[in-house]
Amino acid sequence: MKPKGLFQSFFESEKAGGLVLLICTVISLVLANSSISEEYISMWHYQIGSHSAEHWINDGLMTIFFLLIGLELEREVYKGELSKIKDAILPISGALGGMLIPALIYFAFNVGTSTEHGIGIPMATDIAFAIGILSLLGNRVPVSLKVFLTALAVIDDLGAIILIALFYTKTIYFTNLIISLSIFGVLLIMNRLKVTNLILYLVGGIFMWCFMLNSGVHATITGVLLAFALPFGNGSSKTISSQLQHWLHHPVAFIIIPIFALSNTAIVISKDWIHNFSESYSLGIIFGLVLGKPIGIFLFTYLSVKLKLTNLPEDLNWNKIIGVGFLGGIGFTMSIFVTLLAFEDNQIITNSKFMILIGSLISGLIGFIWLKKSLTKTT
Fold first, then answer.
1. Among 103, 144, 212, 348, which is 20 to 30 Å from 86 by CA?
2. 3-state secondary structure at position 51
3. Per CATH, the architecture of 4-168+218-377 is what?
């Protein structure tokens, strides 16, 4: 595959993956509220070794997802939209605004409460769903808008990774952490020595993950570390970084993320579910995703352009940026992932997941309608 085709491949797999993700979510919700609800939910809590199936999915399979995110981010930094500082400032500023404003809204509703730790929930964006919605608009969508959304979502995920590492780590076992980081150091040395055997890096990555899993720091971080340890070279299709990125697209989009959705959206909707909207964390999640995301993305990109730090591509306008801002409010899988780390109370986790689904649905619908009208005016 040619390097220039990697972005298209990423976009296409995420687009189709978004549809699969939606189907899996609907199936999971139906089963969780059916006559086999108890059996379905208990299946995900089945113990495999020392952990439940759900735990292995969230800490194991999702590491592979973050590996792909890391590889995509690496490519963007070296050869893509983030390789030139002035071009990179537009999605970076959008991502920063899309994280900061939702966080402030959530904090305003939850300051001083036991749920203020969920501040990271509305900060995330689900790449697959956001791109999936955008793809429904067909060929009218300019390439620059696809690239902006993809780069913004990737940076958003990087922010989520940093957030997880800094704020959702409870107890650190430094011996295991040091061993894990030492393995990372060895992989970086191998990179500098131009070692290009992918198997060696993957074996090292597995050991790094094992020690990180037992360090107290969330093990998915190792996916991103491994991505940046792999030799990027000139970015051609022959490099192991490009090959691995290409190989992971479909397994992540069509196996890993759907399994994550099935296991983490097994939500039992109670009869009095409407009362959950009055909870402070519910309001923080809903308003953070639906209002905070578009306001933050628009405001920060607008300021960066007005301050002449960057330029708005010719085929984009502020209406389209606002539309993408609403798509950024589709937190879904990433927001659910942060929820599992932020809270321990099962009822709060379940209610938060439901609010994330509602907020993501509203954001997706508004974003789709907004962009459909915006793109119709310019065609």
1. 103
2. strand
3. Up-down Bundle (1.20)
Q: How remote is the C-alpha of 103 from its chain's centroid? A: 16
Contacts of 95 (CB under 8 A, 6+ apart): 152, 155, 156, 159, 297
Place of tokens 């500023």: 93
Q: Select the more confidently predicted residue: 274 or 122.
A: 122
**Which residue ranges does the chain devote to CATH 1.20.1530.10?**
4-168+218-377
Q: How far apart are CA 272 and CA 286, in angstroms?
A: 18
pLDDT band at 3 (very low <50, low <70, confident <90, very high): very low
CA distance 215 to 372: 47
Q: Can you read off the two tokens belonging to residue 378?
A: 């310019």
**pLDDT greater than 90 at residue 6:** no
Confidence of residue 193 (pLDDT cuts 50, 70, 90): very high
What tokens were used for 257?
A: 């993320």
Tell me which residue has tokens 């030799």: 231
Name the residue type at position 228.
F
pLDDT band at 271 (very low <50, low <70, confident <90, very high): confident
Please name the residue that has the structure tokens 């798509």. Answer: 327
Instruction: Enter the tokens of residue 272.
Output: 């009095």
- Spatial contact of 338 and 355, defined as CB atoms under 8 Å apart: no
With H, G, I as helix, E, B as strand and everything else as coil, classify residue 126.
coil
C-alpha to C-alpha distance for 126 and 249, rounded to whole angstroms: 15
Quote the tokens at residue 129: 């769903």
Cβ atoms within 10 A of the Cβ of 251, count?
15
pLDDT of 286 strictly over 60: yes
Q: What is the pTM of this model?
A: 0.78
**Rounded to whole angstroms, how far apart are CA atoms 256 and 264?**
12
